[in-house]
Amino acid sequence: MASFILRRLLVSVLIIIAASFLMYMLVAYSVDPLADLRSSNSPNKTQLIAARIDLLQLDVPPPLRWLFWLGGAAKCLIPFANACDLGSTISNAQVVDILPQALASTVQLVTLALILAVLLGVTIGIVTALRQYSGLDNVVTFLSFFLYSLPAFLVAVLLKEFVAIGFNNFLAHPVIQWWVAVLIGVVAGLIWQSLIGGNMRRRLSTFVISGVATTLVLLLMSAMDWFLHPGLGPVVMIILTAAVVVGTTALISGLQNRKALITAAINGAIVIIAYFALQPLFSISSVATIAILVIVAILVSLAIGYFVGGYDRGQNMRVGVIVTIVSGALVLLDRFMQAWPQYFSDTNGRPIATVGSSTPGLEGDIWVSGLDTFTHLALPTIALLLISFASYTRYSRAGMLEVLNQDFIRTARAKGLPERTVIVRHAFRNMLIPITTLVAFDVGALLGGAIITEKVFAIPGMGSLFNAGLSRGDLNPVMAYFVIIAAMAILFNFLADLAYAALDPRVRVR
Amino acid sequence: MSTSEMIPDELQAPTAPPVSQGRLIWRRFLSNKLAVVSAVLFILIVIFSISAIGLGPIPGWWKYDFKELNDQVQRGSPTWEHPFGQDRIGKDYFALTMRGIQNSVLVMIVIGVIASVLGVVVGAVAGYFRGIVDAVLMRITDVFIVIPALVIGSVVGHFAGGLGAPVLAVMLGLFSWMGIARLVRGEFLSLREREFVEAARVAGASDSRIIFKHILPNAIGVVIVASTLIMASAILLETALSFLGYGIRPPDVSLGLLISSNQSAFQTRPWLFWWPGAFIVTLALLVNFVGDGLRDAFDPRHRRFNLRKMREEEPEPGEGDGGSRKTGVALGEDVL
């Protein structure tokens, strides 16, 4: 194992060095860092040119310059020495100084998009596999083909023009017309009847119940001015938490497992008590407070799962943690919603932002600034997410179908396991194995896709560093971008290989 | 005779007249309605765009040229005179869009062909000779694959974009072969151990003959499918590069460039945005459907997934299901 890791590391480093040489030569010979000065009219043009040649060592031939650059970059590997040198930009700023901020905003964007894409894509993939050739399956299949064929920049521009501006306009007069509500209700009903399935009669009743419920909720929200003063409130909070408790237990262990149900119920009750008890604390919280609360909540739920016990402690603990995380997220969501009216007035009634990564000059507690980050990240994240979401759906659907066709699934069914156990414990886990490889590839694709998203939404991240550097003929930021992207891609591939070996005992790491 | 009647016939009577592998695949492709319709539509769109504004010096039937400046009719909104409207300086938008389609399709095909040829050669040599050759070639592939397509495309487009669409396409093709090379290598690694290769070697065939005459025809399915899918992503790559300003440069146009330069006019002149957008999505969607149809045709194992459902819906005559499944697998192994 150790020798495998060492060998992979060595090969990876060599590959990055070779690729950086390729990239350096391509960029160095194709750009002209002096272009803006050559066309300038300033009287000291010659001195400026000479100064820049001196600054960027342009008199040194590119292959040799690459060696100098590599020497500087290699110092980054020395821990705690702070000797990192990635060269300077043409405006004489150190790349190392501008890098962290750009990296932070890109990582924020890409991580969120990746997590959401995996969660949504895998869930929908599994559901469509279980309802193969239903109306829902066909619609999702067509949609994913459509998303494959949609250029990232088109999605981004459309989101900006329709979703952002449209939603802001809607918030100016937040009234849902009755026919819009009915239309959404019909769509929701169609989705639910396809999900639940069954015979004609059952489908029809599902359709009617879910459709009417959706329409009524929408009309109620509209009548109560919910969109301007959102919030879950104690009653809805308790109902939703109860739904989480029952749903999680039904999904993970089955409702007949009383111990699991008890664990889930205790956790749900604790969250509800915390919801009421912690409101004053939330108002004066910082990010650290919330982080501590989250960790404590997870530890408590694990402990509850352990002490309730039963024949399957691991399962109990899983149920407990999931209940706590989901209903805890609801509590936080509710608190964010309470901050919404203030944020709404701070942004002059146009909360969804189309450019930048934060509102300049906005002051407020973590809830308001959290909302600010959210409204800025929402659209770029959706734009990034939609594209990789399609491939997760396709792969997990195909993977699920393939696993379901295997003999051990037939065996599991034959020995009388309930369908839930067959899907969740036998099929689902095996289906996840190939997804790890897909995630690794996807990280590279998302980081590349961020170039476009960041341009459309004017986010000062890695992508715009690369883009601006390339168009200005600025070599060093481009190389810094490249090294980080390549290192991340290789790192994730490596992690995927390790994960694959850990998850699938048939794969041996040598 | 349709395919559904054809396959059971084959099963029941091994003495039936032999049908060549190619014809079987062709029939399977034709039986996929969506893929056939997509292929036909794609060809029609290409013919339409070429005949409308002509190709190079040959004029087409449309009265305006895409470089020509005209008087603004009704502030450039779509009229009978200019069905797609006019852009801000009065160019006919129909001609511009058609030119954009031509360029996008050209880039797509050139990238697909170059990537396939390079990928096949690298993959075949690596997979066939194995050992040190394989290790060196695959490390080179790794070096290229580390750089995301959009990044290398931007850098290449930065200097090749001004040289016209064909040069840009060739340059991009030189950096898109890695995926196919890996696939072909995998195919060759397994095919080279098969008996027919052994037989050819014993008969004294040279390495190049074994590679190109014996192994490659057996791996061609993977190549065709992969290069179709590369073409679909090539269209998107070209439009993305043009959007970023590293692709095709004015006065020539591409679909991505049209969207990029008219992005700010979205509220006032939405048609400048919708036409190129609609054509990008349509072209990419059609190519994806064709690629998917080809994959099903070359690899009938994909059909295995829907077995459970098939049993419920359309029980095949005779022993039908189990039999066709076996054939499916056998056919798949022969093709791949």
Say how many strands of chain B there are.
0
Q: Report the principal-axis shape of chain A.
A: globular
- Topology as H/E string of chain B? HHHHHHHHHHHHHH
Q: What does the main sheet of chain A amount to? A: none
The global form of chain B is elongated
Element pattern of chain A in H and E? HHHHHHHHHHHHHHHHHHH
Determine the fraction of residues in helical runs of chain A and give it as a percent range: over 70%
Q: What's the mean pLDDT score of chain A?
A: 84
Structural class category of chain A: mainly alpha
Class derived from helix and strand content of chain B: mainly alpha
In short:
Chain A has 19 helices and no strands. Chain A is mainly α.
3D structure, described in words:
Chain A is built from 19 helices and no strands. Chain A has helices at residues 2-30, 35-38, 45-56, 62-74, 95-130, 135-148, 152-172, 178-196, 200-223, 233-252, 258-277, 279-283, 287-308, 313-346, 366-404, 407-414, 419-457, 462-472, 475-503. In chain A, helix 5 (95-130) crosses helix 15, helix 8 (178-196) packs antiparallel against helix 9 (200-223) and helix 17 packs antiparallel against helix 19. The longest helix of chain A has 39 residues, at 366-404. Chain A is globular. In chain A, 33% of the residues are buried. The model of chain A has no long low-confidence stretch (mean pLDDT 84). Chain B is mainly α. Residues 304-336 of chain B have low confidence and may be disordered. The chains are: A mainly alpha (510), B mainly alpha (336). The interface between A and B is large, with 50 and 46 residues.
Topology:
The complex is a heterodimer of chains A (510) and B (336).
Chain A lengths: L1 H29 L4 H4 L6 H12 L5 H13 L20 H36 L4 H14 L3 H21 L5 H19 L3 H24 L9 H20 L5 H20 L1 H5 L3 H22 L4 H34 L19 H39 L2 H8 L4 H39 L4 H11 L2 H29 L7
Chain B lengths: L2 H10 L8 H10 L2 H21 L39 H37 L1 H16 L2 H12 L4 H9 L4 H14 L3 H8 L4 H38 L10 H7 L9 H28 L8 H7 L6 H16 L1
Helix pairs in contact in B: 2-12, 3-4, 3-12, 4-5, 4-7, 4-8, 4-10, 4-11, 4-12, 5-8, 6-7, 6-10, 8-10, 9-10, 10-11, 10-12, 11-12
